[in-house]
Amino acid sequence: MATIVIVGAGLGGMPMAFEMRELARKTDRIVMISDKDYFHFVPSNPWVAVDWRKPDDIKVPLAGVLAKRKVELIVNAVTRVDPDGRKVILADDSSVEYDHLILATGPRLAFDEVEGLGPDGGFTQSICHVDHADKARNRWQSFVENPGPVVVGAVQGASCFGPAYEYAFIMDRDLRQRKLRDKVPMTFVTPEPYIGHLGLGGVGDSKSMLESELRQHHINWICNARVEKIEDGLMHVVEVNDDGSEKTRHELPFDYSMMLPAFTGIEAVRGIEGLVNPRGFIIIDKHQRNPTYPDIWGIGVAVAIAPPGKTPLPVGVPKTGFMIESMVTATARNIRAVLDEQEPESEATWNAVCLADMGDTGIAFVAIPQIPPRNVNWMKKGKWVHYGKIAFEKYFLHKVRAGTSDPIYERYVMKTLGIDRLK
């Protein structure tokens, strides 16, 4: 019997629990450790932040779902991973031993790296977690009573730019519905070297398409932007040249701001030599396995991925939903291979399929693989994307409630489109 511990109950952790339970031996113990007793669908957070969704609309309690699949649940925070002792230490000083550890933790949100950033002790909002989105919703409801300038985007070191673009367009749509758009100047601030870079070197015609959308929605932008500090109602931004030298200083007044932070690995793994890189992300090989500690596996936002090219300011690589699910499938199969005393062979494709909502329309892109050079590389706009994302939200929440990761009809549709999870 092996004990397989999964840390994190998010977009990677939940499918991981379901697939691992299906592939593990009947005698193997599957344990999920989460600091929350619920799953929440992160892609819907921008809708929560403008009150188009309530937090409970996108939450699923963990206990019943996991018990149904015979996965043990421990609701506690992991304070330290002990790879030599093959155990994780919890906040109450108890520990859980493992034969295989899967780190699906998501990131630490590094609000502390920019003075004044964040909803807790800072002056900006966040949509990285449903609790943050709920705070943003409360602030938004006050803002629309007395509207003014908006600054939205991401700070240097951020890696998930799609939600920032989404939220900018969703705010624009909500303000137009309220007939308040004419009272709200909007500025998009990003460390990307150009609009539509997305941490991926662009996808299809993302640069011209997103620039055109920002113009049509009367949203100004500043690229190569380093956020120096944020005061109450004022953001200090340094725009840099291609060599990183200072170009222009901007002082941007705002009455409402949402800025995505940089990500790091969680504190529980920071500084463990051989396990993580200097930013605390899990080092993995092509089989999702850590080379130094082969009983530790990484999936999702927690893993280290090198940027596709050098940029004037730090720009991370996003880990999109389908890419994460491909990591999940490869990891589950490889762990089963090791349990059977075989060498791991499965490799995730890291293909990216993304639906970005824009309030009443949307932009979809497919990048195969996500990191260039690519075999498939396109981006398209249409109302179908908006409705497609709504449908995907309902579908994914249904998958979690049903306790399945890869229904046969999803597998068939993706196969038909030439989008595979494994190489």
Automatic annotation (TrEMBL):
GO CC, any one term: membrane
Taxonomic superkingdom: Bacteria
Cofactor(s) needed by this chain: FAD
Sequence ranges assigned to domain FAD/NAD(P)-binding in this UniProt record: 3-300
Keyword check for Membrane: yes
Compartment list: Membrane
Keyword annotations from UniProtKB, A to Z: FAD, Flavoprotein, Membrane, Nucleotide-binding, Oxidoreductase, Quinone
UniProt enzyme class: oxidoreductase
Pfam families recorded: Pyr_redox_2
Reactions mediated catalytically: n a quinone + n hydrogen sulfide + n H(+) = polysulfur(n-2) + n a quinol
GO MF term list: nucleotide binding; quinone binding; sulfide:quinone oxidoreductase activity
Record's bilayer topology term: Peripheral membrane protein
Transmembrane segment boundaries: none
EC number: 1.8.5.4
Record function comment: Catalyzes the oxidation of hydrogen sulfide, with the help of a quinone. Consecutive reaction cycles lead to the accumulation of a polysulfide product on the active site Cys residues; these products are released when they exceed a critical length, typically as cyclooctasulfur.
Family named by the database record: Belongs to the SQRD family.
Name the record gives this protein: Sulfide-quinone reductase
